[in-house]
Amino acid sequence: MMFIDGRRYDGVWDDTAILEAMERPFGVRVGMASADFFRWAAPAGLVLILATFAALAFVNFGGAATYAHWSETLVGFRFGAFTFDLTVGKWVNDGLMALFFLIVGIEIKRELVNGELSSIDKAAVPLLGALGGMLFPALIFYAMNRGLPTAHGWGCRCRPTSPLPLAS
Questions:
Q1: Has residue 4 got a pLDDT over 70?
Q2: What is the 3-state secondary structure (H, E, C) of the chain?
Q3: Is residue 66 within 8 Å of 55, Cβ to Cβ?
Q4: Residue ranges covered by each domain of the chain
Q5: Which of 26, 95, 100, 142 would staple 154 via disulfide (CB 3.0–4.6 Å)?
């Protein structure tokens, strides 16, 4: 059994075929790695949804104090005099959310380049839906707050995170 670039090689066992498999262009290897990653990312989304429901159940059925204490626990590392520590809540909000949006951005790019959104005809409805998902909450907020000092807060409602599921 032979592995090339982390994948099991099931091809012909002559020198030319093995060398061709080993010397694939960089773009082909990146494409294969990203395909493997997205096969992994879909089940990870299901785990994320299940973890969300488990956390909601835990907090709402008597675990709120434990959760609050746990989310304020400091986690980090020390290197000599340098200390870097954040609360668990900060690690989740700043670190894992950045990773989440990186994955979402990569998936959207993949769909725009090679997938279901690669032509303007296929992409028009999701893009208009995403645009509406950002603009309509801002317009509703502004309409309800027009003439008030809070009217300038419409930008808080115009965030791109809400329509991401629609766009992706």
A1: no
A2: CEEECCEEECCCCCHHHHHHHHCCCHHHHHHHHHHHHHHHHHHHHHHHHHHHHHHHHHHHHHHHHHHHHHHCCEEEEEECCEEEEEEHHHHHHHHHHHHHHHHHHHHHHHHHHCCCCCCHHHHHHHHHHHHHHHHHHHHHHHHHHCCCHHHHHHHHHCCCCCCHHHHC
A3: no
A4: 25-115, 120-168
A5: 142
* Residue 168, pLDDT above cutoff 50: no
Per-residue pLDDT reduced to its tens digit, 11-63: 667 666 666 766 777 777 777 777 777 676 667 777 778 888 998 999 999 99
- Predicted confidence at residue 66, as pLDDT, reads 92
CB 167 within 8 A of CB 112: no
**Contact criterion met (CB below 8 Å) for 29 and 5:** yes
> Which residues fall within 8 angstroms of residue 132, CB to CB, at 6 or more apart?
163
- In the predicted model, is pLDDT for residue 74 greater than 90? yes
By C-alpha distance, which of 150, 154, 129 is closest to 141?
154
Higher-confidence residue of 162 and 115: namely 115
